[in-house]
Specification:
With 303 residues, the protein is of the alpha+beta class. The protein folds into three domains: 7-36; 48-92 and 177-298, D-amino Acid Aminotransferase, Chain A, domain 1, CATH 3.30.470; 95-173, Dna Ligase, domain 1 (2-Layer Sandwich). It is built from nine helices and nine strands.
Amino acid sequence: MNANSNFLSKLFNIKHILLYLIQKTCKIYSDKLYLRMIFRLKMGYPLNLDNPKTFSEKLQWLKLYNRKPEYTTMVDKFAVKEYVAKIIGEEYIIPTLGAWDTPEEINWDELPNQFVLKTTHDSGGVFICKDKNNFDFDLVKNLLNKRLRKNLFYLTREWPYKNVKPRIIAERYMEDAEGVLTDYKFFCFDGKVEAMFVATERQNKSEDTKFDFFDKQYDHLPFCQGHQNANEIPQKPVMFEKMIQLSELLTKNIPQIRVDWYEIGNSIYLGELTFFHYGGLEPFEPQEWDYKFGELINLPAMK
């Protein structure tokens, strides 16, 4: 290892340690100070809240200054179902099999052989059961209890999650004719879809998840974020235009939000609503796309 690479390795380790320490003590900092610190470490440039330009900066601004009570309902994976059904109809909602405050309340015998468990108050708390005979119930119960004790707000300062009631829901297991479930995620700005991305390879344990970004005409966009592009560009979903139509109905008068869909045959189902893609803390490659997406957000006047 040459001197330059050794220096970069040490610098990376220092940043990693600082980030760990700040996140471990996250509750002692004000929202603004905490965001400034983790933004600088994760994004590599200082957070400008007085005159934000990039997509990532503007998401931090929205965390601090765009807080509405309905946003809490919209990120609650249980409450959002009724909220969305009232606007676009129940046919776009994945059926709920049950809801509980603790995993100890779940009657596993009453659940079908295949199902999906989700925690309602955070990101990533998803447990898929394809066969109850090969499902580690004890492990999942322990993981669910750990999830229920955490509040995502403090790690990312995503205000909508702060007051969501921690619960567990079971949903019907869904897959398409190929036995997979592809995510289609639409970026909406003041009720208009401007871009989207497709997440593939999520069910393939031998491959890393792939993200491919597109404009609203489904032309591929030349950047990466978080994951590499797929080797082959994913095909345009059959219900692409319907996804755009419904996404725009759900997002009127919201400066920026992401609407996630699943497509199964000629039917589509809501995945979730996400106000802060990657928490606004994942670099774009190349960085110019951070500015291009930033231009799409019109920040509301501060009250």
